Amino acid sequence: MKTNISKRITDPRFKIFHDLMPYKIKTILLISLQYDAWIMEEDCRLSEKMVSEHRGLNLIDPPRLHWVANIQKALGVLGQQQFVLVIIIARDTDTNSEKIAAAIYN
């Protein structure tokens, strides 16, 4: 049985997939307290969920998750490596997500 590959590529069902592929998230920076990072990994199994979702979509190369404990370390890492997505979990009363986002953006 022969399939027409060009027909499959132009199939409208795959259009959204091809439109989104250039924006695939490859690196994630997580800024949080050590406790929050531990809870996300132990209770939520964040890494396992990312891998299983990628496998479920027949994608290879799930995103890499990098954790830092504070904004100073985050800015240092951002100076050395580019991240596609930054997640801020601010539970401290001293931490202001808007200020962190502004510091990262600038």
List the helices and strands and how they pair.
Layout: H1 5-10, H2 12-20, E1 27-31, H3 34-42, H4 46-56, E2 64-68, H5 71-80, E3 85-88, H6 97-105
Parallel strand pairs: 1-2, 1-3
- CATH C-level class is Alpha Beta
At the fold tier of CATH, the topology name is Rossmann fold
Global outline: globular
Radius of gyration: 18 Å
Can you tell me the CATH architecture? Answer: 3-Layer(aba) Sandwich
What's the N-to-C terminus distance?
Answer: 56 Å
Q: What is the chains' assembly state?
A: single chain
Q: Tally the structural domains.
A: 1
Work out the number of β strands: 3
Largest sheet: 3 strands, parallel
What is the spatial order of strands in the main beta sheet? 2-1-3
Percentage beta strand: 5-15%
Helical amount: 40-55%
Average per-residue pLDDT, rounded, comes to 78
